[in-house]
Amino acid sequence: MRTTIRATVGVAAAIALTALVPVSGSVEGSPAPDTIVAVTGDAENGFEITYGDGSGLYPPTDSEALAECSEYDTRIDRVRCRVEVRTWYRDLAVLKQALEWAHADR
To answer: Quick one: how far is CA 76 from the chain centroid?
Structure first.
């Protein structure tokens, strides 16, 4: 379970970078396959992350992720895990808001 949380945090970092860094070679008007095009949901009920190629990522809900944190042996590891989970979901909420703003008609 420890590697699951670490992998989840690693995926979060990759997601943030993917959303911010344009990938060369994509056709104008259509996103590159690894570009995040939508984030739906919330931490309590679970997020859905959709990529340009139609694939999706479904991270665990916040309660599931925090429950995994309780499996760590030392208090410091449990606290670190909880902070990582909170950061992950905060960043997903911000990314969702940014995508909604970017897609809004002006």
So the answer is: 24
Tokens of 82: 């909880």
In angstroms, the CA 40 to CA 82 distance is 22
Cα–Cα–Cα angle for 95, 18, 79, nearest 5°?
Answer: 60
DSSP-derived letter for residue 59 is P
- Both tokens assigned to 17: 């970078």
Spans in the chain with pLDDT lower than 70: 1-28, 106
Residues pairing with 46 in the sheet: 42
Nearest to 62 by CA among 43, 37, 84, 80: 43
Question: Helix (H, G, I), strand (E, B), or coil: what is residue 21?
Answer: coil
Nearest to 33 by CA among 12, 18, 47: 18
Instruction: Give the residues across from 57 on adjacent strands.
Output: 49
d(CA 14, CA 72): 24
Give the chain's radius of gyration (CA, Å). 15
Q: So what's the pLDDT on residue 15? A: 55
